[in-house]
Amino acid sequence: MTARKFDITEQVLKSMKPANARFGVVMSALVRHLHDFVREVELEEAELMAAIEFLTKAGQICTAKRQEFVLLSDTLGVSILVDAINNRLPESATQQTVLGPYYWKGAPELPMGSDLARGVIGEPCFYSGTMLTLDDGPIEGAVLDIWSGDGEGNYDMQLGSDEMRARGRLATGPDGKYWFRSIKPFYYPVPTDGPVGSMLAAMGRHPNRPRHIHFIVSASGYKSIVTHLFPSDGPYLDSDVVFGVKQGLIVDFKRHEPGMAPTGEQVDVPFWTCEYDFRLVRGEQRAA
Ligand code: BEZ
Ligand code: FE
Question: Fewer CB within 10 Å of terminal CB in the chain, N or C?
Answer without folding.
Answer: N
